[in-house]
Hints:
Layout: H1 10-29, H2 35-42, H3 46-49, H4 51-74, H5 76-95, H6 100-128, H7 132-163, H8 168-171, H9 173-187, H10 201-224, H11 252-279, E1 284-287, E2 305-308, E3 311-315
Antiparallel strand pairs: 1-3, 2-3
Helix pairs in contact: 1-6, 1-7, 1-9, 4-5, 4-6, 4-10, 5-6, 5-9
Amino acid sequence: MTTTVATGRRGPALVVLCFVQFMLVLDDTVVSVALPSVRDDLGFSAAGLTWVVNAYFVAFGGLLLLFGRAADLFGRRRVFLSGVALFGVASLLCGIAQEPWQLVAGRFAQGAGAAMASPAALALITLLFPGPEERARALGIWGGIAGLGGTAGLVISGALTGLASWRWIFLINLPIAVAALALLPRLVAESRASRPGRMDVPGAVLGSRGHHRAGRRSRLGHLELRPAGRRRLGGGGAGRAGRRSRPGRRSLGGFLAGAHRRSRAPRLRRAARRRTAREGLPRVTRLRPRSRWRRGPSGAAAGTSLRRPGVRCRASS
């Protein structure tokens, strides 16, 4: 795949791309602190409030590969600017939303804009910095700024919600989007792949569907893997909080312990059969765990308890 790229002013272009990526990652977590205020102001239900967060992730994760391919075909700078423009308009719609469906639709549009801008920005960085060392340095700066956006989202969300309103967590994106739309065309030239290709729209739809179902199953799995023996402090459970509880059937520990026991049982049976055949002992009919072993009555006809190193078994008459 060959591309045609004009170098442009690489330093300022990297600054603009880093600020845009900071904005995109910031909106992953910026709504977390503001959710109670959003619920009280717009009248969200408990189930509908989760879509304020999930709509962004579903659109972002599901459309990422599709718009990455679109950037190669239709122009990386063009797709990047289109994504930033869509993200800015969607942020404005989220900031002025008056109904729950308006905010959820705005979050979907934000995720679609982020899916357009993020892979195109990564492609522009790799083209602006062709050398291995300078490319690694640029990608490190870009990734570090993106990580900073993820951690700063909670702080910025709490500050804006407490000092002004939850609507400002979306409206704060507008100055960055406008600055990027004004500066980047002057800093970076257009580039695209010379080889023609096609868009995999059905794959993007199925990817979005799978992304949503995977996130839903992971959340349900997190709830099911909670140990059944764990109790809350306070009330009748305070005295039993320090006791050692056994893992429940749905806990991960119980599942792994059961799988380990089932995997060892055939090996123990075969080892016991070989030892009894070699030493002329009575035939083994059943193995019992050490914790459940009970001594039988005396006498071989009644079922004498045979104690061998490493294996405990019951002998048949």
